[in-house]
Amino acid sequence: MADIDQALERASTLALNGPGYGPNPRVGCVLLAADGSVLGEGWHRGAGTAHAEVAAIADARSRGADLTGATAVVTLEPCAHTGRTGPCVDALTDAGIGAVHYAVADPGEASAGGAAVLRARGIPALLTPHAHATALTRRWLAAMTKGAPYVIAKWAATLDGRMAAADGTSFWITGEQARAHAHGVRASVDAIAVGTGTILTDNPSLSARPHGEEAGHQPLRVVVGHRATDGAKVWRDGNAVAISTDEPRDVLGALWQREVRTLIVEGGPRLLSAFLRAGLVDEVNAYIAPALLGSGPSVVSDLGISTMADALRGGAVTSERLGADTLVTAHFTGGI
Ligand SMILES: NC(=O)c1ccc[n+]([C@@H]2O[C@H](COP(=O)([O-])OP(=O)(O)OC[C@H]3O[C@@H](n4cnc5c(N)ncnc54)[C@H](OP(=O)(O)O)[C@@H]3O)[C@@H](O)[C@H]2O)c1
């Protein structure tokens, strides 16, 4: 492998084998010999399992490689603390690694500082930015930086911005492809929140079924509000929680304590509007159906904005056709 940039690209691809949910980010690592050949590769498989560096060292050892003076190329700064596993800086030092390139600095309160530890031990540790490595840690980085879950506001709406018909029905606004996509996103996050209004109107199961069957990872189901929702489908097992509050920040605080790093707020309009008003939404996923209703609840209610200059505007906007529907994604990281 010729250069560090190529190795970071490979490490980013390896990282994608790890889960997108959980308290840890996806991380990949490639160990290079002086001639640029690959001695070992690894990625993080989720909280409680070996970090990418340790997995790559194990891979190299299983191939009988000598890592003395090797270069470690890793998508995230190696950690310097003992969490569920030991410090990666020690594993790298003990293996005889001669230099480290990392693409993203670790903002974690406990885990940061690994590069400084390595340098103090005489091992050059260079921050080497790489777009793909940054992209795959984007949600986790935003969460760790603000100390609250990364919030995706998701809705399905008609062309005229209605989330449900006047009689309250909202099932099947969008078609099969859009629904399958939304289920895939659910399978990549830690939690899904809805208000009691949605539970009492729709009684959704809030499961992740990207291919028609329940995914291996099911996000925590979160019901926000004071009204009783006993007997609703969301309570079918222990993977659900009720939070009796009107304050979106309390929801994020309670979920952060449960190690939730990514949250989808799926509605309905009152809960979505409360999160938007509070400036707590990092990303909007709007599934737009080519349908018109003319009446029924709008996606977003009063946000306290009365003039165009104050409109909330997202960046890094992308769109994707999903059958007859379109998914529009806009980023608001840093708070709306
Ligand atoms: N198209 C879609 O993507 C989609 C998705 C979900 C829902 N829907 C539709 O949305 C409709 C339900 O709308 P909804 O607005 O009643 O549902 P909702 O937003 O799910 O629930 C509203 C409830 O959320 C609680 N809540 C917590 N914090 C709040 C705050 N700061 N401000 C306001 N409410 C807060 C309150 O519960 P308490 O009163 O219990 O305290 C409130 O009554 C249904 O017709 C459903 O089909 C559509």
Question: Brief overview, please?
Answer:
With 336 residues, this protein is an alpha/beta fold. Helices cover 27% and strands 23% of the residues. The chain is built from 10 helices and 13 strands.
Key features?
336 residues, alpha/beta, Cytidine Deaminase, domain 2, Dihydrofolate Reductase, subunit A, 2 domains, eight-stranded mixed sheet, five-stranded mixed sheet, 10 helices, binds NADP nicotinamide-adenine-dinucleotide phosphate
List the helices and strands and how they pair.
Blueprint: H1 4-15, E1 28-32, E2 38-43, H2 52-62, E3 71-76, H3 88-95, E4 99-104, H4 114-120, E5 125-127, H5 131-136, H6 138-146, E6 150-158, H7 176-186, E7 191-195, H8 196-202, E8 220-224, E9 240-243, H9 248-257, E10 262-267, H10 269-277, E11 283-289, E12 315-322, E13 325-331
The structure holds NADP nicotinamide-adenine-dinucleotide phosphate.
